[in-house]
Write a structure and sequence with these properties.
Blueprint: H1 20-29
Amino acid sequence: MLCLTCRRVRPAENRTDYTNARARLIVLHGLCVCTYPALPGAGGGRIARHRPAIMPR
């Protein structure tokens, strides 16, 4: 579930990925914004800019 590059939570691939445990990990680690290749036959890859994680106060 965590990105091996930035150690943040990777984007969900389907509806069943959205859980309370996943939400907690996103709050603790942030959401991955790395560029990664798409699965074969799925079209283009996801491209995003790196942003600093928002840390809870």
